[in-house]
Amino acid sequence: MAYINLTKETFNETLDNNEIVIIDFWAEWCGPCKQFAPIFEKVAENNPDITFAKVNTEDEQALAMQYGIQSIPTLMVTRDGIILLNQGGMLPEDAFDKLIKHVKGLDMDKIREEIAQEEE
Which fold has domain 2-117? Predict the structure, then answer.
């Protein structure tokens, strides 16, 4: 298994202790989630330097609500604890690979600076 399962108890710690975390919010009954699962697993296996995780929204409803998950699957991408993407829907494998390259190439100092300016 190239991913971990997150709960409300492990969510923040995982984001805090890993540079890049990619999270799939899903549910057992969700057809598109089942279609996306092999793509998620393959991309996870191809990127061992990134932490891939899943959140079962049926088991972790409070966590899903906390992050505004309204449809599944939803993909959340964080880097340095900052949420960069929180988007519903499936991604094809090539788009997923492009997303990862983009996230790896981001200047996080610039991102933090932009966030600080927005908060002023």
Answer: Glutaredoxin (3.40.30)
